[in-house]
Design goal:
Strand 7 (162-164) and strand 8 form a beta hairpin. Helix content is 35%, strand content 20%. It has one domain: Glycerol-3-phosphate (1)-acyltransferase (3-Layer(aba) Sandwich). Helix 1 (12-26) packs across helix 3 (81-93) and helix 4 (106-120) runs parallel beside helix 5 (140-148). By secondary structure, it is an alpha/beta fold. The longest helix is centred in the first third of the chain and has 15 residues, at 12-26.
Amino acid sequence: MRIKVNRFIASKPFVYLLYRIIRMYSWTFRLTVENEKAWLDHLAGGGVVLLCAWHQQFFSAIRYFQKYKIFKPSLMISQSSDGELVAGVAKLTGWHPVRGSSSRGGRKALANMIDRLKETKLAGHILDGPRGPAGEVKAGVISLAHAADAVIVPFHVTAQKAWYFNSWDKFLMPKPFSRVSLHFGKAIKFNKVTDPVSFEAQRKELEEIMLPVLIV
């Protein structure tokens, strides 16, 4: 989902209002969470965790993911104007926004994400980035997992009733009072590789794991 924003919409008062609206709206979801304990136990044992999802499905997790603010997690967010809005909401949710994407400021942002993930042990990542194409895993997630020695924990969302935006990713927004399921998959640990063929094989493997949960 991409939202063109002006200076007022990106202002702190508006971002705070949007954050409160998202919180209230999300409280209407009849939410169930599946398979969370496994990766939390890994984190508690000193492991490093990188939570990943498609851009299409991150909205439904915003309220629930506030519970992880105690870990001071990070999330890469684009430097675009609509990214300002998302970054503001992320800060209020207790997540640290690292600004950059594959199209702008990506190298510096990835380095910052690596440093923070090594320090805090938890981060989030949008697999197909802020612009897509939908269902295409960007290489950054593999680089990040390698550098921080992290396991990748994919998650996806399903909703009993939902709207789908007319956007590149068919952005999913559950309808009020809908049954919503947040499902964490099994942790994936990729061995660090240096040759491009093996790296691409890992990227493709993650893509094939996640494609079945993309709603098209």
